[in-house]
Amino acid sequence: MKNIWKKVGTAAFWIFWVVEWFFALWCTGALYFQRVVPPLWGKLILIALYLGATLFLMLWSLKKRWILAGIAGFSVCFAAAWLLFQHPTGARDWDPPFARVPVARFSADGKSVTIENIRDFHYRTEDDYDVRYRTESYCFDDLETMDYSITHWNGSESFGHIMLSFGFKDGRRIVISPEARMERGKKYEILPGFFRQYELIYIVATEEDAIQLRTHHRRYEKEEVLLYPTTTTPEVARFIFRDLLERSNRLAEHPEFYNGITYNCLSCMAPTAQKLGFDFCDTWRGVCNGFSDRYGFRVGWLYRDDPTESFADYRKRHSVNQYVEHLAAPPDYSKLIRPWCKQK
Predict the structure, then answer these.
(1) Which long-range contacts (CB under 8 A, 24 or more apart) does 78-85 make?
(2) What is the three-class DSSP state of 70?
(3) At what angle do helices 40-61 and 2-33 cross, to 10 degrees?
(4) CA distances (Å), 325 to each of 208, 227, 317, in order?
(5) Contacts for 9 with CB less than 8 Å, ≥ 6 apart
(6) Each residue's pLDDT tens digit in the chain (344 positions)?
(7) Are 93 and 184 in contact (CB under 8 A)?
(8) Residue 173 in 3-state DSSP?
(9) 290: exposed, middle or buried (C-beta count within 10 Å: 0-12, 13-18, 19+)?
């Protein structure tokens, strides 16, 4: 029995050791990306001191194993303190495409909404554009459809960017795209997104802006845009549209951080989806969101007029680049990217 407990103690020790290094590496990233000590040399000194102290304590704990729990607790407290220290402000030097937060003003009777700061940029390249924002009013009863879009880049299918496009009776279409809000001169990178370096914004834009930017002007990333019609009823689409606009309003007053895993373009829609009884936004699909269309296809959420069509054929038919990328500035862009659209 004594030998068994000794083996259990040894196993627990090494488990704690692995957990401690996990927290140590996470804290290293937190130190590197934090804004309190901007110079790189200052960050490297802090990282060296932290890792050196951690390694010393670990080697010391090989003989005094009970100290390891204290070291792990130290790292947890360190990470928690760093997280509490960081607060989104909404007041950085934003890149022009992210400079204005959309604001929705609902009518007294709740039947219509006026949206300010709808992005409608005219792009020549991703970095060369005419800054254009619009203010438009919409009647909720005129909202008829909701389409689901996934953007893949560099051939990756596991991950992507999620957008929703809402179609109105008069032909207008509005895209809502949850994104990491970028500062001037910076590009999105994956690792900083895990350490509260980006704030969240709900971009509200025309399809000629949000989708055409990806089909025409980000070709160095080889972006592929998939656009799917859904079986979402007009009533549910109106609820989602209103709820996302209300959340955008809250962001204008109370900014939130974007996180590449826990609070990305799909998982941040989870509160809205949960109100409707959907659960795929905050499961593993919230992380590997590139597979969310497969799930939607399987459960019948993505509209298809041929029930026998395979997902591979369905997906290929709804890849919109093939319909417009050979056109420099295609008129009727929203129609051209929907040659499959028969039910609308």
Answers:
(1) 78/27, 79/23, 79/26, 79/27, 79/30, 82/27, 82/30, 82/34, 83/196, 85/36
(2) helix
(3) 170
(4) 13, 15, 15
(5) 65
(6) 667 766 666 676 677 667 767 777 777 777 777 776 667 777 777 777 777 776 676 666 555 656 656 666 666 676 667 666 778 888 899 999 999 999 999 999 999 999 999 999 999 988 999 999 999 999 999 999 999 999 988 777 778 899 999 999 999 999 999 999 999 988 888 888 888 889 999 999 999 999 999 998 886 667 899 999 999 999 999 999 999 999 999 998 999 999 887 788 888 887 887 777 776 555 555 556 778 898 889 889 999 989 899 999 999 999 999 999 888 777 889 999 998 775 44
(7) yes
(8) strand
(9) buried
Residue found by looking up tokens 């592929």 in the block: 224
Residue bearing tokens 């609070």: 263
DSSP 3-state of 158 = coil
Q: Domain extents for the chain?
A: 2-85, 98-336
Contact 191, 302 (CB under 8 A): no
Residue count (the chain): 344
Please give the structure tokens belonging to residue 238. Answer: 């109106």
Question: What DSSP line would sit under 110-144, residue for residue?
Answer: SSEEEEEEEE--EEEETTEEE--EEEEEEEGGGEE
Q: How much is the pLDDT for 201?
A: 96
- The two tokens of residue 286 are 């919230």
Instruction: Classify burial at 301, counting beta carbons within 10 Å of its beta carbon; exposed 0-12, middle 13-18, buried 19 or more.
Output: middle
CA-based nearest residue to 312, from 297, 300, 292: 297
Cα(289)–Cα(280) distance, rounded to whole angstroms? 9
Residue labelled with tokens 């008829």: 144
